[in-house]
UniProtKB/TrEMBL annotation:
Cofactor remark: Binds 2 manganese ions per subunit.
Binding-site list for Mn(2+) 1: 281, 358, 360
Lineage: Bacteria, Pseudomonadati, Bacteroidota, Cytophagia, Cytophagales
Catalytic reaction(s) noted: Release of an N-terminal amino acid, preferentially leucine, but not glutamic or aspartic acids; Release of an N-terminal amino acid, Xaa-|-Yaa-, in which Xaa is preferably Leu, but may be other amino acids including Pro although not Arg or Lys, and Yaa may be Pro. Amino acid amides and methyl esters are also readily hydrolyzed, but rates on arylamides are exceedingly low
Binding site for Mn(2+) 2: 276, 281, 299, 360
Listed name of the protein: Probable cytosol aminopeptidase
Record flagged with keyword Hydrolase: yes
Length: 507
């Protein structure tokens, strides 16, 4: 699909008028009534511009076949534009012709063109990529598809930029949703590594992948311990950097010719991202129930968010120094699998008593956090993980848990989450919970014996491995990376965190 920004009337015979329920609604409906040759009173009676409300009108004047009125509700936020337009285009894409006009000028919606285009482009994504039947692309999303967006004359240049960014973000979000939705036999640690390498080659950031032998040489013992039960798909440790910098020679042979990237301003913040990359989680010896184990293909949602943010930072040429680290493994049941009661070493040199092998995400994150802190000393560290069921119990499926040792960072992320719709809710990181992770036989244990505050004690465990870093945030996205929606019959990927992190980096 091509998107054209114009200040003139479009040639499309199908037109969409998005409208806000505000004091100008009656006036705007009167203008539309004249445009389509209908009564203003009837339109005002039949259409109230409620969120996702749709009214289809059939052409009453020559050259116009169909008009859609699309409601945006009262005082829509940026994320509301994404939701409304994704829903409309997803549910109507088989009905829409190859050429569609979208009039933003009348309601003065040009400032939200990035979010509008983002929602429209996300509507193309379909979950069932492994179905055997032939997939037919909707006309509007095909090669000949054309979306003509009418804006005010003074919005032409800014509109073009908004379209480019909205498309870029949606493209990467769709790639991450495809990755998270992929089943276990199509997605394992090496596949995550290949995704990172391909993305780095295309968009211009360094990638270094450590195999199990190299992980052992590095001292990534906690990661390797979790991966012991997976004999066919061993662990991988993925390190990415944008712009291409200190990884340099390590990755050049792997990546081949690099895409050029802009130099980072000297005073730019160095941001470190760590994502949990468990490509399938059986729970190990502490095995999960079978009821929802199939959904554990999504246990690499944190890794997906980091991969997406890395790709978009490079794609959008953001003026930031970004490091991404993904410890990746399967957590399987085998004779070699990690056993409860074992004491294992870690990259930080600290020992860990394993109480429960299903608390594996924090083990691999411990190595990832220690590694990024020691080798890169980022100004900011953010980790993301589908970590605890306790976080879902606390917050349900409306928000991810945020735990941070820095109020300014926490507040910034909370604000951005409201903007992008990837909502966060802050939980305490008080030392009142610290003793719950004490071990008699090791430096720390991986699970509290008390059946309470699981999301918080998990964060206290991770805090133990950041080596005193004072600007760190942990996002427990267990309830948000994979869930129910109108876009699939079963739970599916959301790409939660991709736009959140990208917006954080853009700011």
């Amino acid at each position: 699909m091509k998107i054209k920004i114009t200040a003139n009337n479009t040639a499309a015979k199908t037109i969409i008028f998005p409208l806000v329920d505000n004091e100008k609604l009656a006036e705007n409906l009167s203008k539309i009534a004249k445009h389509v040759g209908l009564s203003a009173e009837i339109l005002q009676q039949d259409f109230k511009a409620g969120t996702k409300e749709t009214l289809a009108l059939y052409g009453a004047i020559e050259g116009l076949e169909k008009v859609y009125l699309l409601g945006l509700g009262k005082s829509p936020k940026p994320i509301d534009y994404v939701k409304v337009f994704r829903s409309f285009f997803y549910n109507n894409k088989k009905k829409l012709p190859s050429n569609v006009g979208l009039k933003l000028k009348m309601a003065g919606l040009e400032a939200n063109i990035e979010q509008i285009v983002n929602g429209i482009c996300l509507a193309e994504y379909e979950v069932g990529i492994y179905k055997s039947d032939e997939k037919k692309t909707a006309d509007i999303f095909g090669e000949s598809g054309l979306l003509e967006i009418q804006v005010a004359e003074n919005w032409l240049e800014k509109g073009e930029k908004g379209v480019a960014v909205g498309q870029a973000i949606a493209e990467t979000q769709s790639r991450i949703m495809t990755l998270v939705d992929a089943p276990a036999n199509y997605k394992y640690p090496q596949k995550l590594a290949e995704f990172a390498i391909e993305s780095g080659q295309k968009y211009g950031f360094d990638v270094k992948v450590y195999d199990e032998k190299q992980c052992l040489e590095l001292g990534l013992h906690a990661l390797l311990a979790v991966g012991r039960g997976s004999t066919e798909n061993p662990a991988r440790f993925i390190v990415m950097e944008y712009p291409s910098a200190t990884l340099g020679n390590q990755s050049s042979a792997m990546l081949g010719e690099q895409v050029s990237s802009k130099p980072v301003p000297e005073r730019s913040r160095r941001v470190g991202l760590v994502g949990k990359g468990v490509t399938f989680d059986t729970g190990g010896i502490s095995i999960k129930s079978s009821a929802s184990m199939s959904y554990m293909k999504s246990d690499m949602g944190g890794a997906g968010a980091v991969l997406g943010a890395m790709e978009l930072a490079a794609k959008l040429q953001l003026p930031v120094h970004l490091i991404g680290v993904i410890p990746s493994t399967e957590n399987c049941v085998d004779g070699n699998a990690l056993k409860p009661s074992e004491v294992i070493p870690s990259y930080a040199g600290k020992t860990i008593e394993v109480i429960d092998t299903d608390a594996e995400g924090r083990l691999i994150l411990a190595d990832g956090l220690s590694y990024i802190k020691k080798n890169f000393e980022p100004d900011v560290i953010i980790d993301l993980a589908t970590l605890t069921g306790n976080c879902i119990a606390a917050l349900g499926y409306a928000a991810a848990g945020l735990l941070s040792n820095n109020d300014a960072l926490a507040n910034e992320l909370l604000e951005i989450g409201q903007e992008t719709g990837e909502k966060l809710w802050r939980l305490p990181l008080w030392d009142d919970y610290k003793d719950m992770m004490n071990s008699d036989v090791a430096d720390i244990k991986n699970l509290s014996s008390a059946p309470v505050a699981g999301a918080i004690t998990a964060a206290k465990f991770l805090e133990f491995f950041i080596d005193g870093h004072t600007n760190w945030a942990h996002l427990d996205i267990a309830g948000m990376a994979f869930g129910d929606s109108e876009f699939a019959k079963m739970k599916s990927a959301t790409a939660f965190g991709v736009n959140l992190l990208t917006t954080f980096l853009r700011k």
